[in-house]
Amino acid sequence: MTFVQGRRVGRLATVGEGGIPSVVPICYAVIHYDGEPVVVSALDEKPKHVPLRDLARVRNILRRPKVSMVVDDYHEDWRALTFTRLSGKAEIIEPDHGLHAVGITALRAKYPQYERMAINAAPLIAIRQLRATSWHGGKTGPSPVEPFAQPGATELAALVRGRRSVRSFQSRSVPRNIIEQAIAAAGWAPSPHGRQPWRFAVIEAPERRASLAAAMAESWQTQLELDGQTPEIVRVRLDKSRQRLRDAPILIVPCLYLAELDHYPDPARQEAERIMAIQSLGAAIQNLLLSIHAAGLDAGWMCAPLFCPELVRDELGLEAALIPHALIPVGYAAKDPARRGRLPLASLIVNWE
Ligand SMILES: Cc1cc2nc3c(=O)[nH]c(=O)nc-3n(C[C@H](O)[C@H](O)[C@H](O)COP(=O)(O)O)c2cc1C
Question: What domain range includes position 86?
């Protein structure tokens, strides 16, 4: 499957009405889902004159799901000619299916053009139960379709790179199970002594979000004025912040919870214990963000509660041992954010002996 994953275009053959074969070039990605490799291909918005569900390939798949696909490399030196033919069962996968989000992430990671296209809102084609035949340099024969050497490695890389901080959201509601799964994923983060020194508050009710936004804005206003910001800047920044909290259908407040950590007689070790808990909270939040992204949604990270933890705790009616550390708005992105570049690997590794 490495050969298939590495090519850019495949030729998908379906059977049309009256048994007439139909072949189209497709962009595709290979994902690992439910313990098997799956080929996914988007029904995208490239100029087409028919609704997506009326595309010949979609109608053909719905009628006769058995399909074939060829991926090949042509060389003038025919000893280097290579192709793989896959056959399998195709399905049309709707956006609410778990496979859909994984497929969209893999397609966007492989083809950056998809980042700007709303392929997440359309169904996609998934080809499962794959069987492969490969031909290389004059040798042909069936080749077993192996799972990836490291199952999930491709998806993980795509998820890590694809996660982004979104700052404006649609008002569309978020299924509860996605939030529960994300918090469960946070729970698998490494933590000092395995004590999991963090908890999560979820705020969904619109009036609760508005009330938290108003309370935090008041506290932030005082701080901005202390900084000497002009009234106009204060107004614009507060409006933006309030809007983000009101528009996102879900807010998650990750809190530090130190009550079950070790206690030391000396301040240095006590402080190290607290820092370890904060490091662990960061790892838990990253798990949460990746899980949300894997489900096809987006999130942001606001540090505001760090500057008024008591206010947020009181507003949410949380117990005194919880220290709000961040605010994570979750939802469907209203627009794609500009991404920041990253340091090259050579700058990240400062020493390797
Ligand atoms: C501890 C922490 C605090 C952050 N606080 C804010 C914030 O208050 N407001 C905001 O818009 N983004 C905040 N961010 C998000 C960063 O701006 C963002 O991660 C960074 O610009 C990289 O962009 P990306 O997340 O899209 O890759 C915070 C991130 C971290 C890790």
Answer: 2-162
153 and 17 in a common domain:
yes
> What is the best residue among 115, 159, 165 to mutate for testing ligand 1's pocket, by most ligand atoms within 8 Å of CB?
165
Domain identity same for 221 and 266: yes
pLDDT, tens digit, 9 for 90 and up, residues 66-122? 999 999 998 888 888 889 999 999 999 999 888 998 899 889 888 888 888 888 889
How many whole angstroms separate alpha carbon 134 and alpha carbon 40? 20
CB under 6 Å to ligand 1: residues? 164-165, 167, 300-304, 337, 339-340
342 found inside a domain: no
What does residue 100 show for φ and ψ, rounded to 5 degrees?
Answer: -60, -50
Closest C-alpha residue for ligand 1 atom 3: 303
Distance 326 CA to ligand 1 centre (A): 10
Instruction: Indicate whether 34 and 142 sit together in one domain.
Output: yes
CATH code for the domain of 287 = 3.40.109.10
Interface predicted TM-score (ipTM) of this complex, two decimals: 0.97
Do 304 and 187 fall into the same domain? yes
Amino acid at the residue 302? M
Task: Tell whether 158 is covered by a domain.
Answer: yes
313 CA to centre of ligand 1 in angstroms: 22
Residue nearest to atom 9 of ligand 1 (CA): 302
Contacts of 146 (CB under 8 A, 6+ apart): 1, 37
Q: What contacts 110, CB < 8 A, 6 or more positions away?
A: 27, 29, 158
Whether residue 197 is contained in a domain is answered as yes
> Quick check: helix, strand or coil at residue 12?
strand
pLDDT above 70 coverage of the chain, percent: 93
Q: How far is CA 213 from the centre of its chain?
A: 26
Distance between CA atoms of residues 14 and 30, nearest Å: 19
Task: Give 99-114 pLDDT, tens digit per residue.
Answer: 998 899 889 888 888 8
Tally of domains within the chain: 2
164 CA to centre of ligand 1 in angstroms:
9
- Write the residue with the smallest CA distance to atom 31 of ligand 1: 301
The 10s digit of each residue's pLDDT in 242-252 is 888 989 999 99
